[in-house]
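Protocol step 4 of 6: record predicted structures for both targets in the notebook before any analysis. Target 1:
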Amino acid sequence: MTDTLARDTSRGTMVTIAGQWSRTLIQLLSTVVLARLLAPGDFGLVTMVTAIVGVAELLREFGLGSAIVQASRIDERQWSSLHWLSVLLGVVFAGLAAASAPLVAAVYQDERLVLLTLALAPTVLINSLSTPLQARLQRDLRFQSLATIEVLAMAAGVAASIVAAFLGAGVWSLIALNVVTFTWRFVSLAIIVRPHFGAPRIDRSVHPLVSIGGSVLGVQLLNYAARNLDNVIIGRVLGASALGMYSRAYALLMLPINQLNGPLARVALPVLSRLRDEPERYRRYIRASLLVLAYVSLPSFAIAAALSVPLVGLLLGPQWAEAAPIFSLLAIAGVAQTLGNVSGWIYISLGRAHVQLVYFLVTKPIVIASFIVGVLLGGLHGLALLYGLVSLALLVPGFLVAIRGTAVTVTDVAAPVIRPLLVSPLCFGMAHLGASLVELHDLLELAIGGLFGALPLAAALLVPAYRADLRQLLDFIARARSRRDLTERSTA
């Protein structure tokens, strides 16, 4: 069983990373093209709607995806019940999303949002039908199928939105992006999984999964509020154009975050759930994941923050220049999100979602309060800065609570982060210096600034500890490519 898990784990990691790279490139293409075809207000309007309709999206999922993945065993009768439960939740919350259309328009004082909300409401049902299908593929470690589906769905959605934008559809091209992507994904999942719904009945045997899902849902709702109420506050206080600037800066931030966390999380959750009775292997997997995330994310965000002006100019165009300083400030929150997600893996894989819920009940209101205080004191820049600082400060207690009572130690979560953290400010300073030495095309400024930003990492290799970290990273990649067990050998 160990050999099978090793093979599936490493293969799944590489396939999922390849799929995520493909999705990121497609998403980047859509960002570059649509930013030049649409106005900031168009993005702001859709962000206004999704910030509220997204609540219905979370409620219909009810944490079932995570609950299914971590369950030790699910029989066919339970699968049938889960399918019907998803249908019920989807119908209820798609209806509520549609009914909320006048409320959404009233919150933002913009009647255009009524039709946009009604257009997005059916996607809640579509995604609800997809949840057990996607969880089944993930549970069976069929990562190649998942990656293929998501890449093709994203490509179809982006193609539809770009065509619609060229035809002058305006904000509706962004609606087409969501509708086509989600519909394509559901149809593809249904073709591969071929679900058997059986009689319309929800068996009592799924109650434990619903209980776990409820705790996960509570966590997700609090997390969603902490990541989306900023959009609501900005849209209500500063308007659609300001929200459009903020949302595009945030979207650029999420590209590397999704690139890092998406593949690792998809593989890590089912694997860590299987390793929960093997504490040493569990600890090694956590250390290896944090080492990879820290070395890739910390210097990368530092360099990107220093080069935000040419980065935004190249990807979005000169009309989006106001998004550059927002992106730089949001990079602080990006670091916190990237590393903090690992604590979530620990909670879910060990069946401790209830503990995470209690912790989030205390901490997420603090993050939400930072939105209000930040926007009142400093507008978009104040909100972005305070959001990042608060999120970063909460990393330490977040990990301490997550590992309490587990085999994972403080050293396991701190040691992989310390050295990349020390070198990242130097990466920021050198990247900024490199870009400031020349006033050329944005692409050349990025290349020169990026080269300068990488110099501290190269210099750090003169220190034996950094060389040891590099060997561990290369070993991690080599074992993944050769399909050997990422969980058996330590990278710490």
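Target 2:
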Amino acid sequence: MLTKITNHQIYLEIDSLGGQMVSLRDVHGTEYLWQGDPAYWKGQAPILFPIVGSLRDGRAEINGETYEMPRHGLARTRQFRRISAGTDTASFRLAADEGTRAAYPFDFSLTVTYELADRTCTQVFTVANEGEGEMPFCLGLHPGFNIPLEADEAFADYLLAFPEAETCDSPTLDPQTGLVLTDRRRPVLENSSRLPLTRSLFAEDALVLENLRSRRASLYSLKSGRGVEIAFDGFDYFGIWQPKDAPFLCLEPWTGTATCDTEDDIFAHKRGMTLLGPGESRRYTFKITLL
């Protein structure tokens, strides 16, 4: 089921399958969100929960038992229930059931609220532990943004910029297992706030920036100035990904990463894991502003 909201500056469509955005357009009709062509990637803006990336062999140990979970978790393939909708806001919720407990044995709720103001879409995510024991989880976002946006532009005309000068590198993802290879690293930025975009950046899969100081990033054209600015307070990791020669770029805030090659297979030990006590909840905010 699709839900459409607008403030007449921007137009947003949300699919109850995965609770994800499927269209984000401005007043002129320009589509900023990737439209899921399976020739490159059939996703659009999946919500990653309760893991980001891959587990080793797709399995992890929870409370002494082994559970299987697909890459990026459960939320992206399940129906969210719409709990409210207005002209410029809508909320959706995913709650634990028998199907989720078979892979993730916890009673949880994941609520996402979309709100529009001027040219900004704000997403508020609330993860709650509805059970009696401690609950580990990670949350990640995976939106793809169309580039180029103009017919006379090219991918190389776009730049990714941060508000602060950054020095950071990225571990490599194993192409077979999806695990993070912690000792195989590549430089990304050296005391610079600007990352020129080239196809070769993604020759070894996604960049995983672990030590950014900035919690905002702008993806925009050097010719037209059009693009998006995102704000991701509360997310410690930032992924950047593009399939080979694709006409979009994914900007991905995460609270954790795929399993590292140096980690064991106990779910709660995964890097970046958040532990919620009974009755506790955690809130995260992600903003997209159209430039």
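Step 5 preliminary note on target 2. Helices lie at 98-101. The longest helix spans residues 98-101.
Proceed to step 6 after PI sign-off.
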